[in-house]
Specification:
elongated; mainly alpha; about 75% helix; about 90 residues
């Protein structure tokens, strides 16, 4: 490979930033799930989150990825709201 060439599998800056958004969302969801009091519910939610992210890991269309991130953030906010209500 010639000096200065980027390998074909390298991510573009846009793809790299989008990947970071997805990973950040995944971590936030897992952190929120840790707050769920019931062990069985925690396990179910953790499995659900893993499966959703795994199922969509090969998505490449920019609009679809943005939509999934938006939906994931809405679901995260709903989970956080539910946990907050349960604690009060």
């Amino acid at each position: 490979m010639a000096a200065g060439r980027v390998p074909p599998a390298a991510l573009t800056l846009k793809q790299f930033l989008r990947r970071q958004q997805v990973l950040q969302l995944y971590r936030k969801i897992l952190r929120a799930i840790r707050e769920v009091p019931a062990e069985q519910d925690r396990r179910y939610l953790k499995d659900w989150a893993r499966e959703e992210f795994r199922r969509n890991k090969d998505a490449t269309e920019e609009d679809a990825i943005r939509m999934m991130i938006t939906q994931g953030n809405m679901q995260l906010k709903e989970l956080q709201r539910t946990l907050k209500l349960a604690k009060s």
